[in-house]
Amino acid sequence: MNPALRRSAAHVFVESLASPVLGDDDRHHLATVLRLRTGEAVSASDGAGGWRTCRFDASGNLSPDGEIVTEPPATTPITIGFALAKGDRPEWIVQKLTEIGVDHILVVRAERAIVRWEPAKADRQLDRLRKVAREASMQSRRVRLPSVSGPFGVDALDAGAAFAEPGGGAVTLESPIIIVGPEGGWTSGELATAPRTVSLGSTVLRVETAALVAAAQLAALRERAGTH
Questions:
Q1: Is the pLDDT of residue 17 over 90?
Q2: CB-based contacts of 206: which residues, under 8 Å, 6+ apart?
Q3: 178 alpha carbon, distance to own chain's centre
Q4: Mean of the pLDDT values across residues 144-157?
Q5: Is the pTM of this model over 0.70?
Q6: 147-152 vs 104-108, strand pairing mode
Q7: What are the tens digits of pLDDT across the range 19-54?
Q8: Are 60 and 20 in contact (CB under 8 A)?
Q9: Superfamily assignment of 79-225 in CATH?
Q10: Mind spelling out the 3-state secondary structure of 139-186?
Q11: What are the residue ranges spanned by the domains of the chain?
């Protein structure tokens, strides 16, 4: 991570880096929640790899204070899919996957999952998860927002996806797409569609734990390979 990003008092997303303008919610967060003082450094990103340093001015806006920098996309993007879980666990999963550095997050329909999104409310549910991803990206100083999409049936997943399943193979960057099933496990029919399976350990994990284990293993492999 660029030291200027790490040192900034806050990180925000804006529509234009040429003329960075804070949204009302972000302005309130910086001024009231974080209590930034005039002149403090704020990094601003367009969410697509571009960013620059700014200063928080007396009017509660941003004044550019550095050149626009563009970070290249990851040469090995990481994708994690997870079966819908109860309560606020999907929000927690998306938050943590974002912090770890996952590039694409998929919501998956599984036969044994208890939770079902009503089609009419799916867009609203996704918008909520994307908001969580945006907030987590601000906290973790990401300059590229992860995509959050779905819900997908297993038959619509990428042909290179690996399903998390006890007894599967090792997690490798050859399959940087891992799909985590519900706590009841995949059905035999669902497993029949899986190009390959990977093991996340010898114990039975909750959906949220499995998603983070998969993401952390892939992120560590990518870090060691230097394929950001």
A1: yes
A2: 85, 183
A3: 14
A4: 91
A5: yes
A6: parallel
A7: 999 988 899 889 889 898 999 999 999 999 999 999
A8: no
A9: SPOUT methyltransferase, trefoil knot domain (3.40.1280.10)
A10: HHCCCECCEEEEEECHHHCCCCCEEEEEEEECCCCCCCEEEECCCCCC
A11: 3-70, 79-225
